[in-house]
Every structure is written in structure tokens, then in C-alpha cells.
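Researcher: I'm preparing a figure for a lab meeting and need a structural model of a single chain. I don't have an experimental structure, so a prediction will have to do for now. The sequence is pasted below. Please return the structure as C-alpha cells so I can convert it later.
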Amino acid sequence: MPERFRVLVIDDDPGVREYMEALITQQGYQVEAAADGEEALAKLDAARPDLVTLDVVLPGMDGLATLAELKRRLPDVPVVMLSGHGQARNIVEAMKLGASDFLRKPFEVEELELAFQKALEKRALKQEVERLRSQARSEAGRLLLTGDNQKMRDVNEIIEQVSDTDITVLVRGESGTGKELVARTLFQLSSRRDQAFVKVNCAALPSELLESELFGFEKGAFTGAQKRKLGKFEFANNGTIFLDEISEMHPSLQAKLLQVLQDGEFSRLGGEADVHVDTRIIAATNRNLEEAVAEGSFREDLFYRLNVVTVQLPPLRDRVDSIPLLAEEFLQQTAEQYDKQMINIASETMDAFMRYHWPGNVRELENMVRRMVVLGNPQAVLEEIALRGSAAEREEKPSDMLDLDALGADFEDGERIDLKAISRRAAQVAEKRVIEKVLAHTRWNRKEAAERLQISYKALLYKMKENGLSEGR
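Model: Understood. Here is the structure written out cell by cell.
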């Protein structure tokens, strides 16, 4: 059974303390109470609170002085201030000292519940940031700063230029190339690094759930909405939100996201007032958004708002010089994680790594090395690479044999053969095969395929239609 959160209640009124203890216990928390600031500070080590409620008006050391000392000794513990007066000066001063919320007495039970929920979720997000901070820095060095090719130098240069700004960034690249890592690196190198980093996978939820996840909802907004829920944008206020697989967001939600980008405002589901947030947005996609705009599945105005600065991550096959360093790092990491003996990668295995196409990119390399360490059998990995490589070669090299009958060649005695017509049909078959293979290699990125085929985008669409080629065929 998970340990319950601990709340320290600081209030000089015995009736209020008794009421708060009963109310907070009923909500499932462990409670410790103190009558003044001095008593509360003396109990800190024993109480080890996850959250504190603090009255502004206290005998001796007042609430603001107590708050300042609490934040000095326990900077990560959220403090909810309570006051019967709610003077603007006190509220401003409390927020400057680090209070997470300010409630005016008498408050509704719902208000206290929401303040606790918000404070604890924000604390959890900050703890996650701390946990990932050193990891992100080491991963950044491992995955982004390795290799000596122009594409990776371009990536690093852009990151350095825009990381400490609030500019919106769109990270593009195939699956497994490290788009989330770029987002976390941008966050870690920014002035917002001490605030929350919130990740949302736009493809993981249907549009209705994604809307409430991003923007929250008010009590009674729909069946089952028993109390207000804050959205991810509110938790990312003053921090950074990472919208992964942005191309999968439903057009109706795209309009709401556009409003956040333009005005920094949105409304919760069922809400009437606008909520203002100061959040940096980083988005990522492995799809061609220009095509999505042309097809009408992605808003053009949103595309231009997101595409302020683009980081284009190259696939691993375009930066093979990174493979030895990456493989070595994955080896060490996996050996430490699973308490396995460190092994050396044989030259034969590394040669195979360097020749392999890596359709799954860095993620596939990491998984391959993990299997090699955990199974303790590098030969099995070599055989797997050989099998995958052979299958890819077979796909890339269709038979040179043409079906002459299908081309209209009739070799019966005396029959005339229309060589020109057969040549035209053979050229059409070859053209279809080549277009199909190039589209497969570019993962049906039509713009890139047109560039590789050295034809215009419109010409490619025409030829695809003429040859009956479509992604869903």
C-alpha cells in the first residue's frame, strides 16, 4: 500500500486546527498540527511534511516569516497560505516568498482539495525535472554531441542559439532519432529549467480526452466531472510543455492550441473565464506537416505558428560516425543497470553496425546493444543484423525479370511484336517500381521523394495517381 502524503497544519486557532485535521484526514492524508511558527519549525524533522498549510496571522513569528524559514529549510515542499483578510500586499509577498497558493477563510472544501492537488502535482513535476536534469545532460552529450558531420553540427548550433529564449521550436525527424531528447535539452539549457517540463503525447489519447488533459475542465462540464481538474498547460505555467506527435492532434483542438500560441490564453472545458499561462511550447513530429496542411488535416496558421524554428534530426544512417560512441555508451549504461559484466564490441560486430541501415535509428541501436549485454551473446545479435539486412536487400532489389506476356510480347511464329509499345509499358513498370521504392525509403514523405527523383512535387503526385500508388494501398 503506497504511503500517504503528510500535511503539516500551522494555525493558532484550536478550532481551525481541529477542523483542518478532520477534513484533511478525511481526504486521505496524514496530518500533524502546530499552533505557531516556532512549534512548526521544531516539528519539521519528525513530521517530514509533503505539504504545509500556513495561517498568515500567527503569534510571535508571523506567517510570512514562518514561510520564509520553511522555504529556506524545505524549498521543495509546497506551502498553501490561509488568511481571513486576503490583503493584496500579503498575497503578493507570500507568492514572492514561494507560496504555492493563497486561500481566503472561510474557504470551500473543494478549494482546499484543488489547492492540494495543484501543489502536489506541481511538486511531483519538479521532482521529475530534478531526476531528469543530470540524465538529460548526459544524454544530450551522448546522443546529440557525438559525431562529426555537418547535419549534427547544425542541430547543435540551433539548440545553442534558441535554448535560452521563449521561442517556439518544432523538432522533426524519424521515429527513434531523439526528438524528445532535443526538447529536454532545450529545456535544460533555458532560463525555465527550474520550472516544470510537461510532456504530452498527442497520439496517445482520443481528441475528447486530450482536450481535458491539455486544458482541464470545470466541475459539471460533463458526466463524471465531479470537481475541477487542471490541465497540463496550467501545470506547465512558467515552464515548458512538449507536444509530441503534434500532427495527430484533431483539427478542433488545433484551433484551441493556436489561441494559446497567439494570446497565452485558453478556457477549461465547461469554463467561462479565460485562463492565462506563460508556457514555452516545443512540438515534435515524424510526419510531413506540409503535406498534412495540403491535405487539410493540419491547420496552416498553426503550422506557421509552430514552425518558427525547426530542428531537423538526421536518421542514424546519415551519421554513422556516431555509432561507435553511442554503442559504447549504451554498453556501459546497460551493464551498470543490469549488473552485468562489461563486454567489448568485436570489430566484426562494429563493422556490421556500421553497414546496417538502422530503420529504427538510435532507439533500435540501444535495444540491440541491450540484448547483446543481457543475453551475453553478441553472435546472436550479429545473426539478427544479417537477417534484417538480407531482408532489406531483398526488398530493395526486385527481380530483374520482366513478365513479357504482361507487356504484350507474343512470340508465336509469325506474330509481329510492337517493340515501341512494349518499351513504353516496360518503362512504366520500371517507373512505378522506382517511385514505390523511393516512397518506401522516405516513409512516404512525398516532398523528399520528389527531391530524390528530381521531379516536382506536383509531377510526383500525378505519377502516383497514374500508377495507382497510395500510402494506404
